[in-house]
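Blinded run. Sample ID left blank on purpose so nobody reads anything into the name before looking at the predicted structure. Input follows.
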Amino acid sequence: MRKLLVLLTTVLFFFTACDLKLKPFEVDDSGHRIEVCRYDRLESQYITTGDFSALQQMNMDYPIETRTLIEDVLKLGEVNDPQINHKFLAFFQDSTLQAIVSDAESQYANMDDINSQLNNAFERLKKYLPEMPIPFVYAQLSALDQSIVIGDKTIGISLDKYLGKDYPLYEKYYLPSQRESMSREYIVPECLNFYLLSLYPMSDFEERSQLERDLHIGKIMWVSNVALGHKFFKSRYIDAIDKYMCRNKNVNIEQLLKNNNYSNIKVHQ
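Blinded prediction complete.
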């Protein structure tokens, strides 16, 4: 849990400092049903076989995702670099990465459960946040970089970061505490956390105390729990938000998310 708090705090700073804005997808929120787009399959096809047609389709059909992956996630250089295709392919020729790609595609051959969970969660959220845009969600392979990548109305899920806490190759790179959240059941909760955080960032982040930052993350997790329909995330900061909302029945979820004043919220040690 502490790892996720730190990671969310880092992302909070990222959105506050950089104001990340990618070109939005044309998404009709009315009756829109989420289905994870399998961008990862095109990516896997290219990096495992060198099939240039797969790369062409990545660039033509998913230009934003491809640019984000190459420039911002993998940091291989600019997408218009004449050598970028070679760099991209060469980067994934490492035997460990090839094994991870293969295992990710095998484990996530079917994502019906993720689609169902995402739809249920966002349907619940829309009841409390009717103006919230429904995101375009896609899967990718990030070479063990970022777990969730947020753009403007988009969520990218790095499947290679969710192969299970007991996945053997993770043991070489991650502590047991870090591996706890690297499993399938964390995908939808973390999608909710990062997406909500992008919509409701903390104002004046750098001037805030650590307690305020922790409460802001606790607030995001509390709302994610509401969307999930059960208490997936647990911490004393989430408990503090829960007690605050129980005492203040007149405060709705939208007001809670927009309010960055935490002076009335007490955290028990």
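Unblinding after everyone has recorded impressions. The chain has a mean pLDDT of 89.
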